Recover the amino acids of this structure.
C-alpha cells in the first residue's frame, strides 16, 4: 500500500505506537492501514461414491483440476461463500455438511477452509472459470493433474477417511517447496 | 477505499468485467481493489480444570473478559497467530492442541477461529491490552461479564464438551442482535 486509501496521500511504513509490526501509516489523515491474510472457502461436493471437480479455465494452473473454491466475500459466512463458489464455478447446488480441512499458506497470506458438501442434483456444468466439471471416484481422480497442494492433501485425507468411515477435521500448512502438517494438530 | 493504494488516484465503485460485485477500481493504473473478511485467531488456554481469560484494557468492551485472540497477521499460520496473541495479551506460553470453534460474523466481515491450547506454565501476567489475567473453573467464569458473543458461545460449548469428555469442532454465525448456528452444521 503506497498511497492512503482514505485520502490519497503517500503512506510511510512505520511501527505505530503500541504496535510491534510496521504498517502503512498516513501522516496526512492519521490512518493506519492493516493488511491481513485472506480466506479461501470451498467444498468437496459429494454424490454417492463420487466427488465433483472443476478443470480450471483461468490462471493459475489452467487445465488442472480443483475443488470449487474462491475468495470469501464481505458480508457472507464461510459456508455461504463455499456454496456461492460452487454455484459460480460448477453451476452446482450443494448443502454444506461440515467443515473438513483448513490449510495455512503463510508465504502467500492465505487460509483455505474447505467443507464437505452434498450435491443436490446432477444438473451441473462448467461455470465461466471452469473448462469442464466432472464426477470422480477415488480411482478416477486425476491425481497427477490436481491444481494445488491444498486440493491434493484434502482429497488424500478425504478418501482415506471415507474408507475408515470417519471424517475428521484436518489442518495443515503448505510451505513454498513442500507440504507439512502442523505438529500441534494431528491430521 | 476512496483512493487507489497503488497510485493515489480517486477510485470508482464498479463491477469489473467477469466479476459480479462492485469493487474499488482505479482508472488511472487499472488496479482493482478487493476487500475481504478478516480472520481473528485465538485460543482457550487450559490448565487442569481451569481456563485462562483476559480482562480487556482496550475498546471495545473495556473491563470485560475474553479469551486471548486478535487479528491474524500476514506470514503466520492460524495456530502461530493464536500463540502470538496469547503471548501478547497474557504473557502466556501455550501449545496449540486442536481447532475448536469457528464463528462467522458477516455484518462486520470477520471470522473467528479459536483453538484449544495447553498452558505451559503459570508464569502469566497482564499484557498491555489486558487489565488482569486469571484462571477460571466452569463455576467461576464471569459469565455475565464476557466481552463477546463468540466467547460466551465458545465457553458454553467448551465446558459442556468437557463434561461429555468429547471435544467436537463447533461452527456458528453471530448476527447483529442474536446468535444462531449454521443450520448446515451441527454444533
Amino acid at each position: 500500500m503506497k498511497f492512503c486509501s482514505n485520502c490519497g496521500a503517500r503512506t510511510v511504513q512505520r511501527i505505530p505506537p503500541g504496535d510491534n509490526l510496521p504498517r502503512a501509516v498516513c501522516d496526512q489523515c492519521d490512518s493506519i492501514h492493516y493488511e491481513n491474510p485472506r480466506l479461501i472457502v470451498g467444498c468437496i461436493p459429494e454424490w454417492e461414491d463420487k466427488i465433483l471437480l472443476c478443470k480450471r479455465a483461468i490462471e493459475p494452473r489452467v487445465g488442472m483440476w480443483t475443488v470449487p473454491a474462491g475468495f470469501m466475500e464481505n458480508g457472507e459466512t464461510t459456508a455461504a461463500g463455499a456454496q456461492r463458489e460452487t454455484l459460480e464455478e460448477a453451476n452446482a447446488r450443494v448443502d454444506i455438511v461440515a467443515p473438513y480441512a483448513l490449510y495455512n499458506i503463510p508465504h502467500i497470506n492465505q487460509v483455505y477452509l474447505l467443507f464437505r458438501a452434498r450435491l443436490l442434483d446432477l444438473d451441473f456444468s462448467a461455470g465461466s472459470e471452469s473448462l469442464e466439471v466432472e464426477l470422480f471416484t477415488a480411482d478416477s481422480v486425476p491425481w497427477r493433474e490436481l491444481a494445488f497442494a491444498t486440493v491434493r492433501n484434502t482429497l488424500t485425507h478425504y478418501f482415506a477417511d471415507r474408507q475408515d468411515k470417519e471424517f475428521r477435521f484436518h489442518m495443515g500448512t503448505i510451505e513454498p517447496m513442500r507440504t507439512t502438517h502442523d505438529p500441534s494438530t494431528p491430521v
Q: What stands out?
A: Residues 23 and 35 of chain B are 8 Å apart (CA to CA). Chain B touches chain A through 51 residues (CB under 8 Å).
